[in-house]
Amino acid sequence: MDMNINDDKLARITDLLEQIQETESIILSHKKLNGIQTQIDQYETIRENLVNELSELMNEFHFKIQYQKEAA
């Protein structure tokens, strides 16, 4: 793999991890404040999409991401 491509992918992986962490914080805040379930669902969908993108990128580096949704 080209180093510039790797650098771009690694930067995107870092960005995704930060976005996942931020989204998780938002979800937890909404849950603690008994937020509107529709909003929580939207953020959970965003988190799932971010995790899926991260998983695809990590596969290229021969890593497998296991994402476990929390129990309801």
What do you see in this structure?
Keywords: Coiled coil. With 72 residues, this protein is an all-alpha fold. It has a domain of 48 residues. Helices cover 74% and strands 0% of the residues. The chain is built from two helices and no strands. Helix 1 runs antiparallel to helix 2. It is elongated, with a radius of gyration of 14 Å. It starts with a helix and ends in a 13-residue tail after the last helix.
Mind telling me the C-alpha Rg? 14 Å
Report strand %: under 5%
Element string (H = helix, E = strand): HH
Mean pLDDT: 91
Helical run tally: 2
End-to-end separation in angstroms reads 41 Å
Helix content: over 70%
